[in-house]
Amino acid sequence: MTTVRIAGVPEHFNLPWRQSIDSGKFEAEKINLEWTNVPEGTGKMCQMLRDGETDIAVILTEGIIKDILAGNPSKIIQIYVQSPLIWGIHVAANSDYHKIEDLKDKKVAISRYGSGSQLMAYVNARNQRWKSDDLKFEIVNTIDGAVESLTNGTADYFMWEHFMTKPLVDQGVFRLITDCPTPWPSFVIVARNEFLKSNTITIQKILEIINKTTIHFTQIPDIDKTLAETFNQKTDDIREWLNLTQWSQQNITKKEFINIQNELFELKIIDKKSTFAETVKAL
């Protein structure tokens, strides 16, 4: 039995992993896949990869490309979710901010530096034609930290996945101003270079298993109800999310990588460029 450590956010996107583990699909291939939930998100997972605390991560595309360029010894081995991630821009429900223009020059709550919540603030700034150099950040670590920060006024707005944040909107904790989709695929699967070198066959088996799960995921009976119960969501919201979500069973292409990297460079999220071979590994 080969033990493999994998990390990802505790969100609906990753239920296929939990189901594949719980059903014994990895164990049948003599793989002990140890899943770690990382509510802090991409910035924390980048650090875990660097520190050798996880072998594989299911991580935001923009965050890991930025961190690989900054020296993270890992490579993208597959796109996991092809469709964009829909980031909701949220404020405290009782705040005086009611439209996107009200948030210019206001402080953004982010989970960590290098996280998707920070990087998407730059995307939103570009969309609104704000100066990205004027962005101000407050580190809150998790969504619970964001609730505290927006409620007590130490930050003004918070960008997080629309559907996972919607219960807080429904409860009257947050108010949704608007959405900001990513201009690239949501999630990729990455592996540490050291682990990749000596475990290629194991990784190929892992990808084969998860791809067989995701390709038919939306056809699983009552999957909308399962997701709604697991993640405290309304069934109608989950159905909308399922209609918008497209899992991938392919690796990122050179053209896709170049386009994403060019976008990140233009946004000043990265200040130099890497090569396809340094960032992506074909298996």
Largest sheet: 5 strands, mixed
Radius of gyration: 19 Å
Q: Low-confidence parts lasting 5 or more residues at pLDDT below 50?
A: none
Q: Can you name the CATH architecture of the largest domain? A: 3-Layer(aba) Sandwich
The helix-and-strand class reads alpha/beta
- Tell me the count of domains: 2
Describe what you observe in this structure.
With 283 residues, the chain is an alpha/beta fold. The chain has 2 domains: 2-84 and 184-279, Periplasmic binding protein-like II (D-Maltodextrin-Binding Protein, domain 2, 3-Layer(aba) Sandwich); 86-181, D-Maltodextrin-Binding Protein, domain 2 (3-Layer(aba) Sandwich). It is built from 13 helices and 10 strands. It has a 5-stranded mixed sheet, sandwiched between helices. Strand 6 (107-110), helix 5 (116-128) and strand 7 form a beta-alpha-beta unit. Helix 1 (15-22) packs across helix 9 and helix 10 crosses helix 11 (235-244). The protein starts with a strand and ends with a helix.
Provide a concise account of the structure shown:
This protein has 283 residues and is of the alpha/beta class.
Summarize this structure as a short list of keywords or feature phrases.
2 domains; 283 residues; five-stranded mixed beta sheet; 42% helix; D-Maltodextrin-Binding Protein, domain 2; alpha/beta
List the helices and strands and how they pair.
Elements: E1 2-8, H1 15-22, H2 25-28, E2 31-37, H3 42-51, E3 56-60, H4 61-69, E4 74-81, E5 86-92, E6 107-110, H5 116-128, E7 136-139, H6 143-152, E8 157-161, H7 162-170, E9 174-181, E10 187-192, H8 193-198, H9 200-215, H10 223-230, H11 235-244, H12 254-266, H13 276-279
Helix pairs in contact: 1-9, 10-11
